[in-house]
Design brief:
Layout lengths: L12 E5 L6 E8 L2 E8 L6 E4 L3 E2 H12 L5
Antiparallel strand pairs: 1-2, 2-3, 3-4, 3-5
């Protein structure tokens, strides 16, 4: 599910995110009628960032809900 960031969407903005005080931070990002999740693991040094493939907004919101509820990782 997670992959290296791929700049397929030119203008994107995070619309929801988890607490940045955690080691792993998740963001729900929207742009151009599409959406994806971004995950940043910040243990030491620069954060390791991964993203899901762009999906419809409804599909991405379902994945977002699954991640927040612990049903997806």
């Amino acid at each position: 599910m997670w992959r290296a960031p791929y700049r397929s969407l030119v203008r994107v903005r995070p619309v929801a995110w988890t607490c940045p005080c955690r080691a792993t931070v998740y963001e729900l990002c929207l742009g151009g009628g599409r959406a994806f999740l971004r995950r940043a693991v910040q243990l030491t040094g620069a954060p390791h960032v991964q993203e899901t493939a762009p999906k419809t907004i409804i599909e991405a919101q379902a994945v977002w809900t699954a991640v927040l509820s612990g049903h997806a990782c």
